[in-house]
Design brief:
5 strands; Rossmann fold; five-stranded mixed sheet; alpha/beta
């Protein structure tokens, strides 16, 4: 496993707020992150993303959740088991849960940090996020970036 940090945004970009993870990943790709941080737009990749989880020691995931909280609420979860992921919303969540189960069986599960952003409903079509979720984006990006910096490999000098 590489001594690097992976930030992966997941979700369906074509379903409004459900794609918040993908929107975040796209913004972070041009954010000037430290060299030890890689960013991937995981989309709805499911098992196709397995190689990333096998490759990195530290993974920061960003996803939407229908958890009944106010839209735009951000929470950090440290999932260790598939059951720790938020309730399934669409096919990409099933893929992530199954992938985590597979990694557990292989004994190759990285340390995961999951930022979830509460959404009110799943839009059927459209790339635009609601005002509430869009307003949470700057805070989300700051939280993800801050965690990535905290997770710097031991042999990396972090400057502010």
């Amino acid at each position: 496993m590489e001594d690097r940090v992976l930030i992966m945004g997941v979700g369906n970009y074509l379903m409004g707020d459900e794609g918040v993870g993908v929107h975040a990943a796209q913004k972070l790709m041009s954010a000037g992150l430290p060299d030890y941080v890689d960013v991937v737009d995981g989309g709805t990749g499911g098992f196709h993303l397995l190689e990333y989880f096998e490759k990195y020691r530290q993974v920061i995931l960003v996803d939407a959740t229908l958890d009944g909280q106010k839209a735009g609420t951000i929470r950090l979860i440290k999932p260790k088991f598939a059951a720790d992921f938020p309730k399934s919303m669409s096919t990409h969540d099933i893929g992530l849960r199954d992938m985590v189960n597979s990694l557990q069986l292989l004994g190759q599960i990285p340390e995961m940090h999951l930022f979830v952003v509460s959404i009110e409903y799943i839009q059927q079509q459209g790339v635009e996020m609601t005002d509430e979720v869009e307003a949470a984006m700057p805070e989300l990006l700051n939280l993800v970036t801050g965690l990535a910096i905290q997770l710097a490999p031991a042999n990396t000098a972090v400057t502010s």
